[in-house]
Amino acid sequence: MHEEPILEVRNLRKQFGTGCYKCRELGTRELEKNFCKHCGTVYACQDISFDLFPGEILGIVGESGSGKSTMMQCLYFDADVTSGEAYINNSILARQNVFELSSQQKRSIRNHVYGMVYQNPVHGLKMNFSSVGNIAEKLIAAGNRNVAVMESTSKKLLESVHIPLHRMKEEPRNFSGGMQQRVQIAKALSNNPPILFLDEVTTGLDLSVQANVLDLIKKIQRDLGISMIVVSHDLAVIRMLADRTIVLLNGKIIEQGLTDQVLEDPQHEYTQQLVYSLL
Amino acid sequence: MKANTHFAFFDEGSKKEIRRAIMKAVAIPGYQVPFASREMPIARGWGTGGLQITLSIIGQSDVLKVIDQGADESVNAVSIKKLVHETTGVDITERTTEASLIQSRHRIPEVPLTKDQILVLQVPMPEPLRAVEAKEYRTKRMHAEDDYSGAWLMLFEQIMKYGKTATAADHPVYVNGRYVMAPSPIPRFDNPKMHHSEALILLGAGREKKIYAVPPYTNVKSLAFEDYPFTVESFEGQQCHLCGSAGIFLDELIDQQTGKTVYQCNDTSYCMDQLNQKEKAEVQTSYA
User: Fold this and answer.
1) Which residues of chain A are within 8 Å of residue B156 when distances are taken between CB atoms?
2) ipTM strictly over 0.85?
3) Angle B169-B172-B175 (CA atoms, 0-180°, nearest 5)?
4) Most CB atoms within 10 A, among A135, A194, A272, B50?
């Protein structure tokens, strides 16, 4: 791919705690895991850099605690980064580090550029509001003030994720886990975001529903050409969805490349373990 | 007037603190200013916010009127009037035009207010975004960032469920194009009265410890979608069964025995005025 990346992340760092003289002097390279034994400071993400190209699906794999979700939260502005830069290449935000923008600007990016599907639908949806309302919320936030337009857009989206029409005005708390996840996907897609984040979307769903959701994601990517970052600890999910894959361990990128390459011919010791530990 | 109590119940320090909050509220229309809500001799939720504002701005030359849901003689209104009168000795009136200070619960009087009057509204729930966000620090941030999608979402939900915006009272308003404000539980009918009101409107929430204000001649716009414009309660073809007034906010009364529905002015002093005027006119013509 020789296109310009749509999202560039450079040296993203996120730590919990201030660090002590030991871990600061030694540098995080010396740490056995991702935390300092002396002061307990957790270095959740350390110098993560990558590019996301238009229309590609980037997979992020790693074990629990490897910093996948923290990275995602930082990119989606749910958490503040300790340091680092990220650039979104569109006409409005040309070469501005998005982490340094004001919270209004960040909110505008969330409403116009990003879509997010959380692992737990509770975070992404308002369970007391109707499904149509949940999707309309994003449209309202993006400045839409026409009920008829929002209603028809929401209905179209819900239809595209296979939510039956007669249940559209129902609150998602009455829905099954898979349906909630699909409503979340519809919500994330409501304002045609160029970038979509998917955080462990299939975890906790049974196999047939998993396949359903994965098919849906694949179809959306094919139809709309949205760039996606897919975080998962499930290699099968990554294998099915991702064009390129990044492997995280203790907050650091240890391997990256084309998904086939990484999964068929792993170079790093940890990746080898990960690939061969498949049941 | 009781000899031993301080003028207007409060000590001067308290009045000063509340006045400062009021000044700030007037300076930033629609912004909820936190203040140290005091323990009052009436229960929280019975108008302590309004009462604290009234007591801290009242002067000896003021004339007070207190309304409770349009009525001047309800228990709540009478008790508040009694307290203020006993501690200040100011004149009490029921006529809107005579009052310089009007404390009200859930209504704005029918007679248009003038620039010499101040309206104090009692507010139970000052936060228009509470239904979408339970956490105070989050709603504060939403106000700061002009993020009112939650308020719009509530209206959208009503339209989805009932086919129209169904806020019976407390329909959110944009004040001065910036802050979304809960106008206290006044009926939608009274929302337009806030727009470019000649009188200063002060809103006090005692339990929630917030004061906010709509200064005179401020833009107040009720939230409404493009294709669902804001509407007020309609009493088309109805009139008060006592004074015969129309085009005002009417109460619907159902006679339990006969099952007949009659309408009556909600604003009792307005109704009384109309009746008195009629009588006067009658006396002039019949006995002249």
Assistant:
1) 133, 136, 140, 147, 150
2) no
3) 130
4) A135
How far apart (Å, rounded) are the C-alpha atoms in residues A143 and A138?
A: 9
The residue of chain A with its CA nearest to that of B144 is A104
What is the per-residue pLDDT for B288?
Answer: 62
Given the candidates 3.40.50.11310, 3.40.50.720, 3.30.1830.10, 3.40.190.10, the CATH classification of the domain at B12-222 is 3.40.50.11310
Low-confidence ranges of chain A (pLDDT < 50): none
The domain spans of chain B are 12-222, 234-288
pLDDT of A226-252, one tens digit each? 999 999 888 888 998 999 999 998 888
Separation of alpha carbons A180 and A125, rounded Å? 8
- What's the CA gap between B104 and B72, in Å, rounded? 9
**What CA–CA distance (Å, rounded) separates A102 from A167?**
39
Q: Tens digit of pLDDT for each residue in B105-116?
A: 999 999 999 999
Closest Cα in chain A, distance from residue B224 (Å): 8
The DSSP string of B18-74 is HHHHHHHHHHSTT--EE--PPP-SS-TTSSHHHHHHHHHH--TT-EEEEEETTBSSS
What is the C-alpha separation between A117 and A196, in angstroms, rounded?
A: 8
Each residue of B257-268: pLDDT tens digit?
Answer: 898 999 999 999
Residue corresponding to tokens 């859930």: B106
Q: Is the pTM of this model over 0.90?
A: no
Catalytic residues of B: 30, 240, 243, 265, 271
Here the tokens at position A40 are 């307990």
Residue bearing tokens 């404000």: B181
Helices A177-189/A207-224 angle, 10° precision: 10
